[in-house]
Amino acid sequence: MLIKIIIGALLIFIVFNLARAGVAMARQQESTLPMSHFLGRRVLYSAIALGLILLAIATGLITPNPRPY
């Protein structure tokens, strides 16, 4: 159950960084962090989430859905 909470929190953080990148793009001020900073963090956390999901499936902590046919 803990692994599912961690994955869910990572996915929420990914969407949060996407929203912050959108705000940074709309403002286009020089004093704030650039949009690429937030998009880079989003890509990093997406890679971590994917690796964590693959590791959890390989170790048997979570099981994927069965085939539909």
Automatic annotation (TrEMBL):
| Transmembrane feature ranges | 45-63
Pfam family of the protein (one)? DUF2909
Q: Does the keyword Transmembrane apply?
A: yes
| InterPro entries the UniProt entry points to | DUF2909
Query: What are the record keywords, sorted?
Result: Membrane, Transmembrane, Transmembrane helix
Name recorded for this polypeptide: DUF2909 domain-containing protein
Record the organism: Alishewanella aestuarii B11
